[in-house]
Design a protein that fits this description.
Elements: E1 2-3, E2 6-7, E3 21-25, H1 32-39, E4 61-64, H2 76-86, H3 91-104, H4 120-132, E5 138-142, H5 150-167, E6 170-174, H6 178-184, E7 187-191, E8 198-203, H7 218-232
Parallel strand pairs: 3-6, 3-7, 4-5, 5-6
Antiparallel strand pairs: 1-2, 7-8
Helix pairs in contact: 2-3, 2-4, 3-4, 6-7
Length: 233
C-alpha cells in the first residue's frame, strides 16, 4: 500500500482465525489503520490479496471509528438502526433489532435522546450498537476509546469483551494502548515502525473471563511488558 510513494505495508502475511479477538499495536505510522481499512475494503492494496471467509455480503463486516460519527438530527434509536434502514429493512424490524443492540450496550433508557445530550462514552456505545445491529461476523475497531477518560475506557473494555464472548464474532482492535490490548485480546500483534513487518505475534496467557480485578494481576503486567518491549525495539 502506497501513500505518496511511501510504502505503508509490504510483505505482510497474517492469518486470523474465526472467533479470535486480535489486538493490533505499533508506533504511529506503522500501518495499523491502513491494515484495518484494507480488511474493511475501504482501501485496496496495490498488490497481494485480503481474503475473508465466507466472502461476499458486505454487511458481514462492521467498522467502528475513533469518532462515533452519529447523525445529530437522529435520536439514539434511529442512529443505531441506520445500517438496517440502508439495507431496506422495515421500520418494525430495524427498531426491534436496534433496541436489542442498544440493550446489549446498556442504553435502553436513552433511546429518545439525541447525540448532543450524550456523554462521550454513551456516544461511543451508540456507535458500537450501530455496528452490532447487522450481526456482523467481523468487527473492526480503530482506536474507538482513545478520546475517552480512563474510567469510561475501563468500563467499555469489559463490556466489549463480554459482547465478543456472547456473540462469538471475530474482532480486530487497533490501539496505541498496551494495557487495553493486553486486557481485551486473546492474541496481540505488534507491527514495526514501517513496512508492516510483524515484530511480535503472541497468544496472551490470561484468563478468558476479564474484569477490573485483572488490571492489578501480575500476569497482565507481564503481558504488557512483553508487548511494550516489542514496540520499543
Amino acid at each position: 500500500m502506497f501513500d505518496n510513494q511511501h510504502v505503508v505495508i509490504a510483505g505482510m502475511n497474517l492469518q486470523i482465525d474465526s472467533g479470535e479477538f486480535l489486538a493490533v499495536l505499533g508506533p504511529s505510522g506503522s500501518g495499523k489503520s491502513t491494515l484495518l481499512r484494507m480488511i474493511a475494503r475501504l482501501a485496496e492494496p496495490d498488490s497481494g490479496t485480503i481474503r475473508t471467509e465466507p466472502n461476499g455480503d458486505r454487511f458481514q463486516t462492521a467498522y467502528v471509528f475513533q469518532d462515533a460519527h452519529l447523525l445529530p438530527w437522529r435520536n439514539v434509536l434511529d442512529n443505531a438502526a441506520l445500517p438496517l434502514e440502508l439495507m431496506g429493512k422495515s421500520r418494525i424490524e430495524r427498531n426491534e433489532k436496534a433496541r436489542r443492540a442498544l440493550e446489549q450496550v446498556g442504553l435502553l433508557a436513552a433511546l429518545d435522546r439525541y447525540p448532543a445530550q450524550l456523554s462521550g462514552g454513551m456516544r461511543m456505545r451508540v456507535s458500537l450498537a450501530r455496528a452490532l445491529v447487522t450481526e456482523p461476523r467481523l468487527l473492526l475497531l480503530d482506536e474507538p476509546f482513545a478520546a475517552l477518560d480512563e474510567i469510561t475506557r475501563f468500563h467499555l473494555d469489559v463490556q466489549l469483551r463480554e459482547l465478543w464472548q456472547r456473540r462469538g464474532m471475530t474482532v480486530i482492535f487497533v490501539t496505541h494502548s498496551v494495557s487495553e490490548a493486553a486486557f481485551l485480546a486473546n492474541r496481540a500483534v505488534v507491527m514495526g515502525r514501517s513496512g508492516g513487518a510483524i515484530k511480535l505475534d503472541r497468544i496472551l496467557e490470561l484468563p478468558s473471563i476479564r474484569n477490573n480485578e485483572l488490571r492489578s494481576d501480575p500476569r497482565l503486567g507481564q503481558e504488557m511488558r512483553l508487548l511494550l518491549g516489542a514496540i520499543e525495539e
